[in-house]
Please model this.
Amino acid sequence: MTMRAPDSDLPIVLEDVRFGARAVAIIDGVSLMLASGAPTVLIGPNGSGKTTLLRAAMGLIRPSRGRVTWAGSAEVPPTRRAIVFQRPTMLRRSAAANVHYALAAAGIPRARRPSRIGELLALVGLSPAAERSARRLSGGEQQRLAVARALAREPDVLFLDEPTASLDPASTKALEDVIAAIAKRGIKVVLSTHDLGEARRLAGEIVLLHRGRAVENGPAVQFFDSPQTAIARKFLAGELLV
Model:
């Protein structure tokens, strides 16, 4: 009997996950469930393990201890999840052609591609830039184009690694609006940031990482109104975590 692929990769469950280089743990003993719903935002100082945790949840790295499962299975190809890194590479072609390439790579039928290109560029606010060289777009426009490419495979989980780092306020606002629109479509967004303002604006759930450990995890409102740990209180107060 042929096993049918699950309709979703959710929930994604990390169980006592450790990943490290030799004796140094980048993430250490993290247990976490990523379920459908509002965005989950990973926060914490630089070096706290945010990027590594995203890569593990995406399935790009295997933990040295513990395990990651997608909808209950540990062996699930990443066809229903996508990731955008902090500095995405733009192909040397137009914005529309970048999206076309992603659609072809995702196996979207040729007849559907022109309409999907239009839909995705409209979603990220880049319809007027369709024929512009992707490498000549601003940093914020390139990030939005990278999101459009990631959505080409129609994922139900989208991971974003520090998506607004180095962007000016206008570009940050434009990208945050896109992220909110994606979440409203039922796509689970999991993003990392060190910007508390961004976390407040986007998060339904907060995961605070420090030294590779998840020191606090819960609803965003609860986290910001009544943090449960001393580390969280220091972080929210702007104190340096060492």
